[in-house]
Amino acid sequence: MRIDIPRIIDIPRIQSRVVELLAEYGIPSAAIGILHGGQLAEFAVGVKNVETREPATPDTVYQCGSMTKTWTALAFMQLVDEGKVDLDEPVRTYLPGFTVADPEASAKVTPRHLLCHTSGIEEAFGDPGEDDDVYERMVENIADAPQVFPLGHTHGYSAALGYGILARILEVQDGKLWDDVMRDRLFDPMDLTSTSSRPEQEDETRVATGHLIRSLEEGPIVTPVDHLPRAFGPGGNITSTVREVLAMAHVLLDEGTAPNGQRIVSAESLREMTRSRVPVPDPYMFGPEWALGLIACDWNGETVYATDGSTIGQNARLRLLPDSNTAITMLTNGGPRESFYRQVFNEILTGLGTVTIPDMPAPHPTLKLDLPRYEGVYERPGARYEVSADGGKLHLTLVLDPMQAEFLQKPDRVTYELLPVSETHFLMPPVDALEDTQTVAIYDFTHGAAGCAAGYAARYLHTNCRVHPRRA
């Protein structure tokens, strides 16, 4: 363990606290890295696998999930620097056959829409397989993909498709596979030897195993799914260590320059990544704005950038505090749990003397809502939310896939109370010990919305970054 942080941080005390929290939350291990003033501290606690009991170290390789999107965005901004692409040119300029069901989206969707999740295109890419043509096939498969919302109308997270399209543009421009693009444009120039995009490239002796938890009594169990499908690659399949995640953070904090002095992107492109933003309808869970491959957060008036990711049994967090030249990352093989992340990061941030993560908003106890405006079914493939009123209160029922519910030992319908923060924002308190309070936005009130006969009704429900249109 190397500790060069100039301000004194009680690393042993933080390690002990993390050990306590891992046990409390049923998470097998956490690796944590801190970059402050250009200097580094890193440590790990727990085990890589609950069955083998091998200890985690700072060199343990974890799955980064959607943090991958920030890597892909950096590579794409290199194309911008080279004058090969323009963020506001239609995708068809670079992929001439690009077509989805909506003619306007087909003709007008741009890389900027894809980078900040405002394309509205449904993730209807079928099964593009695991071969080297996976991103080419994803683009071919969406010819009939409908719009979740009109192009540019709102923010709605795209787990795989948006960055899959960006990856295909990278492949066409560079004449090589996305995996090779990432190696040649980022990993090799940054001297990253533990970061990769394919499972077969990993050092099996160093990788963490993902875990799920069905009850605190049972404890964490090894996930039945080792990795996400290859289709999720540009948006979710990079694996790395805390030190190499912090190398990316260095690029983002130091105007595009890696720790080894290599310029990765121009300072101008980095400014574009952070300043080009769209509002997020649910601003409280992650942040009020989405930039190009990053979330822009407001921590008590200070701008902080975030990039997170989850796979099936692993979780990654990175926070960038430009005002104090600080980055903190945490990689785990369990979770995600929002309250776990908040407690760990706030321990570190307090020790550094920086701004800390703000608390969730309090509910508005006297706010009077016109409840029928919110009632309805909000749905897209794989997710259904039913909002109803009872006793003067709103409730949300989450409908789980029966197989998922059976594996997790949960009912297939789980009902939560919605506590209003404003006319469009709600807190959703947990109903069991494995959950944290979530936030929900119900918004975009339109006359004659589907399923509502009287007056203006909400068109969308937004939670966990994802948008769900009213269906009934």
Describe this entry's structure for a reader.
The chain is α+β, with helices and mostly antiparallel strands and 472 residues long. It is 25% helix and 24% strand. The protein contains twelve helices and 20 strands. The protein has helices at residues 11-25, 68-81, 103-108, 111-115, 134-141, 161-174, 178-187, 233-236, 242-253, 267-275, 338-352, 402-408, and strands at 29-36, 39-46, 62-63, 211-213, 220-222, 239-240, 278-279, 289-290, 295-299, 302-310, 315-321, 326-332, 376-380, 383-390, 393-399, 413-420, 425-428, 438-447, 456-463, 466-469. Strands 2-1-12-11-10-9-8-7 form an eight-stranded antiparallel beta sheet, sandwiched between helices. The longest helix is centred in the first third of the chain and has 15 residues, at 11-25. The protein is globular and about 60 Å long. It starts with 10 loop residues before the first helix and ends with a strand. The relative contact order is 0.14. The mean pLDDT is 95.
Summarize the structure.
This protein is of the alpha+beta class. It contains twelve helices and 20 strands.
How big a fraction of the residues is strand? 15-25%
Given as residue ranges, the uncertain stretches (5+ residues, pLDDT < 50) are: none
The 3D shape can be described as globular
**Radius of gyration over alpha carbons?**
22 Å
